[in-house]
Amino acid sequence: PEWVAITNGGEAPLSDLQIAVDYVQGDAGWLTTALAETTAPTEVSIRADASNLSAGTYRADVSVVAASASNSPQIIEVNFVVDEALPVIRVQSTSVLFAVAEGEGDPPSQNVSINNGGGGDLTGLDARISYAEGEPTGWLRANLAGAIAPTDLTLRVDPSRLASDAVYGAVVNVTSPVAESVSIQVRFSYGAPPPTIGLDPTSVSWSIVENDASPETRRVSITNTGTGVLGDLRAVVEYGPGANGWLRAIIDPDVAPTDLRASLTNTALLPGAYAATILVSSDSASSTNSPQPVAVSLQVAPRAAPLTSTITASPTSIVADGVETSDITVQLRDSRGDDMPTGGDLVRLFTTVGTLSDIQDLGGGIYTATLTSSTTAGSTSITGTVNDEAITDQAVVQFIAGPASPLTSTITVTPSSIEANGTSTATITVQLVDANGNALTSGGDNVGLTPSDGTIGAVTDNGNGTYTATLTSSTTAGQVTITGSVNGDAILDSGAIEFVHGPATSIELAGSTTDLQSGATRTLTATLKDGAGNVVTSGTESTADVTFAQTTGDGSVTGLTTVAAVAGVATLDVTGDGTGSVTLRATTSSPSLQSNTLSFTVTSGAPASIELAGLTTGLQSGATRTLTATLKDGAGNVVTSGTGSTANVTFAQTTGDGSVTGLTAVAAVAGVATLDVTGNLAGSVTLRATSGSLQSNTLSFTVTAPDE
User: Fold this and answer.
1) Residue 651, CA distances (Å) to 648, 661, 664, 678, 685 in order
2) pLDDT reported for residue 325
3) How far is the CA of 403 from the CAs of 378, 421, 485, 492, in angstroms?
4) Which one-letter DSSP state was computed for residue 566?
5) Is this prediction's pTM over 0.70?
């Protein structure tokens, strides 16, 4: 091909270069172009192909285009003159081998077909034989069937005057006054078979995509199918029409048996079919079939270019309902901007929103898929890859909201609370939304609003899917609901606002006033209220520190402390302690308030211990001593009431070598059990009182003998 340099004559970067071909004179399709890079400086290759053209003059304009260039496009004028084809002698084979053993007579004759490989008429054909200097002559005959192609050349050998065990050579020159002559090498092996070139296979081929990495080497086995040594082997490449220099052929070592290794040296060829012949020859004098051809074919397919391929969508705007679709089309193009002629490339598509169907390969470089909208409004970008390379182009599809739905539209209130003073205001906003939750972005709908308290002004259409109105408070504290409608249908959603209280003016202390058993718990609540009796549920006063304290009474409770109110209510658990009357009050310092009083009586709790008491001095045998067992609750209070106050208490001796009489079970009275015991046997005595699972401390003394 011819190469034309493209440079940047300005200062800003020159990128996004593209090439277009316009055929001005004669048939189209004979010119192939390719950009080395899309950013200047770069080169464009231009290649003309006359294989499908008749003789004549052809012209095309190559446009170099760049959106960023002020002088785009620039034109390269290409003129192509195709001369009338001349006759060309084409022979079936340029090498013919005869072989026969001594005494077997003449070898069979061989025919070589002769054709016209060019244009016009191939006439005046003639065949002349020449022999190498010093070699025997006259042993070969060459006869043409006719002087006009196509025809046949018949070759015959007469070995009658030749010595055996030798190889003889001659050249048959086929000539014509209107074409260049062609030589046919003829070898005759007479006697033992000479070294002979054997090839397997006799043809190799590649099928690649332009600019592919070099494919693997092809190997052809070379053997000696005759006798002796087949050496001095070499390979020569002859190219067919089109490009050359794309093939390498190496034989190493150069003595059979060996391998011919054929490899590609240039994979940057333009798309098309290429052919070459590797001629394997030997300089060994005994080689009778040298050279031998290996046919080579190369098919270069165009490569899909991610830079020039396109992604389009139709339509570009659909409703975001999860149902509507857009057709996505990928048109693959090669680096020259031409549509790919076939399918088979790996194309993938990706979307940021919505779903894509499987891709269909329609051939001709066209691939399609269906994009189904999501139910979310917005835009999505459709990107893709071809053969795992990102396509530069992309398509954008808008997912738009559908009609307003009363089921999904919203009503909001700002702020969420205002003072119930008859003058404070809040803003009511309606956002119209479609059935899939997408906010509308335009106006024109009919919206109405109604509050459960207070008054509301006219509704304003803001033209962007929102509608607003002003709500004025009443003088009554409480929760207010705002309902609405769109186009006559009730909106399912509603707005809420609170008309809030004034400042706190009192504390209300509440709790049970029944008796509280010692050890039991009771909940007290202190509620901050405004002058109208509304609970102060918000503001700094709603979290004021409330102090619970005892003001009078001979009883007591535990747990009295300061508690921070929550939404105007302070809660505290107190536990009965000392028995007797208790009077409580709640106060705050900011604001300075005190509550009503709350009174109740703390009573004893359930028995938790037994306290055994009595003298521990010596007790004379026969003398009497009083023991007391007192039932006490967990706070140390005597259990003076309830079932525990009359529990049975058992007095018993636990250890000691002495003894007393009168030990028994006694019912307690007001929590105290009393028992008289009498000294019996002299010695130590240890006693204990028990009631159920409770047991007392021990009490020890000594019983002494009576006085004599």
Assistant:
1) 10, 11, 6, 13, 13
2) 96
3) 15, 40, 14, 16
4) B
5) no
